[in-house]
Amino acid sequence: MDDVIKVKLIPIYILSRKYYVPEGSTIITAMEYAGFKLKKGVGCREGFCGACASIYRLPNDYKLHGGLGCQTVVQEDMQIVQIPYVPAPKAIYDLEELEPDPNIFLKYYPETYRCLSCNTCTKVCPQDLQVMDYVQAAIRGDIERVAELSFDCLSCGLCAARCPAEITQFNVALLGRRIYGKYLSKKGKFVEKRLKEIEEGKYEEGYKELMTLSKEDLKKRYFERDLNFEIT
Amino acid sequence: MGYPEYMFDSLKKVEESRPKRVELAKKGLQNFLKPMSAEEREKILSNYHPDYSSDARKPIRVGPNKGENLTSEVVDILQSHTRLPRNFSLDTVDYEADVLVIGGGGAGCQAALWAMKNGASVIISTKLRLGDANSMMSQGGMQAAINPGDSPLIHYLDAIGGGHFDNKPELVKALTNEAPYIVKFLEDIGVIWDKLPDGNPQTDSGGGASRRRMLCCKDYTGAEIMRVLRDEVRNHPEEIKVLEYLPAIELIKDEEGKIAGAILFNMETGEYAIVKAKVVVMATGGFGRLHIKGFQTTNHYGATMDGVVMAYRAGGKLLYMDSVQYHPTGSIYPKQILGFLVTEKIRSFGGQPLNKDGELFVFPLEPRDVESAAFIKECAEGRGIITPDGHTGIWLDSPIIEILRGPGTLEKSFPAMVRQYRRFGIDITKEPMLVYPTLHYQNGGVEIDEWTHTNLPNLLFAGECSGGVHGRNRLMGNSVLDYNVFGRRAGIEAARLAKETEIKGKLNIDHIWKYEEELKNEGIETDLISPILLPEYRNIELLRKHNKDFDPFLPAGL
Q1: Cys staple from B295: which of A102, B181, B439, B446, with CB 3.0 to 4.6 Å?
Q2: Are A28 and A34 contacting, i.e. CB atoms less than 8 angstroms apart?
């Protein structure tokens, strides 16, 4: 199928060497086409894991760009280097003992407060997140805002690699989100109620019955079950 | 970018049929377009599901399942040689722990955490980085019967019916009965579930589920759970040692035949490392990167069935390795995202599959195998849309969600999908997606019981590499649940077993040489080495042309 279409090759530079690769390739598929067997700097290949952070320059452009290798289409004369991972300090904590205290980031990631508001992190983020804004929210102790603004973070590390204040933004955000999930998000009653029913053995009889039904009876029960898409 | 001009006619038909489809959806689609009966399901599966094609399966000639029909590509990978040299020595042990967890995805992290909580020292070996796994990529959600109108028993019935009644009942009981606990456990370690204003988790429907039971974290459900589990593992560096970029390639036994560790392999340097452990938990995930029947896959780069290979050589019994899950909605356009997952949650929220004439041709939330077969049929009968690269697919109408659930719903509940398509020039709030079934999940694996034991002493299996939980077809949202429930159970059981285990006598890998002997006796000749560790995507032809010394076999995984 693919081979009936004439593929146009364009030049790119991988670790400074020139290769010709099919137009429309991503950085990852271009490197593979060029003969690299990738053992680092590649993961899910669908933009969810952050393993393929890459930096690149384009001709006649002063800017150093960042992107995910699996999501960035190569351009003519692009100069590419991969950043398989960014060494980053990670605070050790026991979530059970933490409190949703506005000073939590000061305690575990004090360097957060070195933020220069230069916005480099936001500009390099391949997810287009407002990284600097969540760092500022962390400084203000607004945990909910940190969680909200950082939710789509993939921990690719490009922000931390470029930050002149040496902040590890993605780990700051992760701490904020975990505190939000455990302590600050609103809790309903449904889960607790169901857990209590299970604990009291409310479903044991039903399981026993279902598990001993013949395949035919089980089939009948299944195809006769009602569909109900209301919540209650 | 956007869609090429020749598709505009078809796109127009999608728009024209939309108001009518909105009307039906508002009245409840199931009242107009009934889900298939048992007979209809059977018919469409046997005619159109790839598992039923004549070359899909073949008998395996060696090992514990000898004579049984398995998926052909699985047979090839199993009937292959070890990576180890014949004179390999186990004299120097490099690492020792109570429990060795092989695989750093969701099941592996759960197992490590619970083994640790129960007093065991733990090593995690992982091929790439911790958390580089299919777990990270799941988008749509996790099933748990938490709503008042639902019950674990209805969840049980849905799961076992979706699996064609082949699931092991005690596994489905554990899966469904512990789901609400997992919801709570994950929230307690900081997972942020999408919530309703009253604080209860938001729930939606899913293929083959008769109630709203799908909990989610936008469409980053897997990523949210995985990064929290990973962070929790990293909070215990003393108790859990993580070995990244160091995959296991073979299991080790003691003189009594108990599993007693594994051999790891540094893909960069070619060095081996020997781990001695009282119990091994296998959590290596699935086989999407084998590209069965040439299908594209939604799977992680490392999904190459390693755990099944290692265990099979050691005598591990397989269950349902004749069955492959194709996710109905893999992207087929633009080409940069070929095969990528489009979450089933799109259909949970009201998204509809349409043919080139804009017609809704199947109930959108059939179990995955049935839905996929219906898509394949539609395309085979000429009602699909052909892409410039020659792939055929059907429309998945996403803009309808903005009408049914309010403007901004896609941006809010599907940020990953909106972003994915926007990067390549398509706005899914205004235009539909083009999709076709894509290789998604390994339904079977090494058979387990409800505490994740296999037939091999001191070898536990959890998550996608295990067999029995989902029968021959898994429902949406039950894999995230599976790795949490059974990863946890494996950890608890591993710690318990470790306490009563003593490794007896010398470590050995005699089973590997016995298996090689069996291959030889059966006259099986192959150059293939497994586990393959990483798929081959290089341009081999080009390498051959430019470099006559290029060796195509050496680099398999190297």
Answers
A1: B439
A2: no
Q: Which residue does chain A place closest to B185, by CA atoms?
A: A182
For testing the chain B interface, which of A191, A208, A211 should be mutated: the one with the most B CBs within 10 Å? A191
DSSP string, B287-299: -GGG-GGG--B-S
Residues in chain A predicted with pLDDT less than 50, given as ranges, are 1-4
Identify the H or E element spanning A157: none
- Is the same domain home to B427 and B462? no
Q: Which A residues 192-211 touch B at CB under 8 Å? A: 192-195, 198, 203, 206-207, 210-211
Chain A residues 95-154 with CB within 8 Å of chain B: 95, 127-128, 147, 151-152, 154
Report the 10 Å Cβ neighbour count for B84.
17
Give burial (CB, 10 Å; 0-12/13-18/19+) of B377.
middle
| The model's pTM | 0.96
A229 shares contact with chain B (CB less than 8 Å): yes
Is B521 among the domain residues? no
- Using alpha carbons, list the distances in angstroms from residue A202 to A197, B155, B168, B399: 5, 15, 22, 42
What CA–CA distance (Å, rounded) separates B417 from B135?
Answer: 17
Q: Are A225 and B154 inside 8 Å of each other by CB?
A: yes
Please check whether residues B393 and B448 belong to one and the same domain. no
| H-type alpha helices, chain A | 27-33, 104-108, 120-124, 131-140, 143-150, 158-162, 169-179, 190-199, 204-212, 215-224
CA quadruple A20, A21, A23, A28: dihedral sign? negative
> Quick check: B390 and A1 CB within 8 A?
yes
Distance CA(B102)–CA(B265), nearest Å, equals 12
The whole domain housing A200 covers 190-219
CA distance B104 to chain A (A): 13
Compute the distance between CA of residue B503 and CA of residue B275 in angstroms, rounded to an integer: 13
ipTM above 0.90, yes or no: yes
Q: Using CB atoms, which residue from B169, B200, B205 is nearest to A211?
A: B169
Closest partner residue to B157 among A40, A179, A222, by Cβ? A222
Cβ-based contacts under 8 A for chains A and B? 242
Would you please indicate which residues of B are annotated as catalytic (active-site) residues? Answer: 327, 347
Please list every residue in chain A whose beta carbon sits closer than 8 Å to the beta carbon of residue B471. none
Centroid of chain to Cα B50? 17
Nearest chain B residue (CA) to A155? B227
pLDDT (tens digit, 9 = 90+) per residue, B265-288?
Answer: 998 888 999 999 999 999 999 999
% helix, strand, coil for chain B, step of 5: 35, 20, 45
Q: Which residues pair with A14 in a beta bridge?
A: A17, A80
Type of residue found at B197: P
Pick A219's closest partner by Cβ from B38, B335, B542: B38
For the cut 50, the answer to whether the pLDDT of residue B56 exceeds it is yes
- 8 Å CB contact of A73 and B170: no
Give the count of domains, chain B: 2
The rounded distance, in Å, linking the Cα atoms of B253 and B244 is 23
Chain B neighbors of A1, CB-CB under 8 A: 389-391
SS3 at position A55: strand
| Rg of chain B, C-alpha, whole Å | 23
B383: CATH: 3.90.700.10
Considering the domain boundaries, does residue B18 fall inside one? yes
Taking only residues 10 to 39 of chain B, the set having a beta carbon closer than 8 angstroms to any beta carbon of chain A reads 28, 30, 35, 37-38
Query: Cβ contact (<8 Å) for B165 and A215?
Result: yes
pLDDT tens string B509-541: 999 999 999 999 999 999 899 999 999 898 877
The SS3 assignment for B425 reads: coil
Q: What is the DSSP string of B395-406?
A: EEE-HHHHHHS-
In terms of Cβ atoms closer than 10 Å to its own Cβ (0-12, 13-18, 19+), residue B51 is buried
